[in-house]
Amino acid sequence: MHRRLKKNILLLGFCLVMLAGGCASFGDKSKKVILQNPETMEFVDCKVDKWGTKKSFETNEECVKNYQAKGYVIWGER
């Protein structure tokens, strides 16, 4: 039982460190970017998934760049 308790405490500590690190790393970046095509007035959005990992933010930035290359402009960020 002592071994199981020690294992659970280590796991909990690891999870807390990972959560704290994830929140601190991307707090200044937008989780949703809304873009508009000035010609058609169509709106699209690029979103970070619910996990908010580094890869999610990179994918979101790539999404924004792809739409900007098609002529869309950033209308808003959240």
Question: What report would you give on this structure?
Answer:
This protein is of the alpha+beta class and 78 residues long. The protein has one domain (2-77). It has two helices and three strands, in the order αββαβ. It has helices at 2-25, 54-69, and strands at residues 32-36, 43-47, 73-77. Strands 2-1-3 form a three-stranded antiparallel β-sheet, covered by helices on one side. A hairpin with a 6-residue loop joins strand 1 (32-36) and strand 2 (43-47). The chain starts with a helix and ends with a strand.
- In what range is the share of β-strand residues? 15-25%
Mean pLDDT: 82
**Cα radius of gyration in angstroms:** 19 Å
Number of strands: 3
Span of the ends, CA to CA: 47 Å
Structural class given helices, strands, pairing? alpha+beta
Number of helices: 2
* Run of helices and strands: HEEHE
Provide the helix percentage. Answer: 40-55%
Bulk shape: rod-shaped
How would you write the strand order of the largest sheet? 2-1-3
Indicate how many domains the architecture comprises.
1
Q: Can you tell me the residue ranges where pLDDT is under 50 for at least 5 consecutive residues?
A: none
Q: Outline the biggest β-sheet.
A: 3 strands, antiparallel
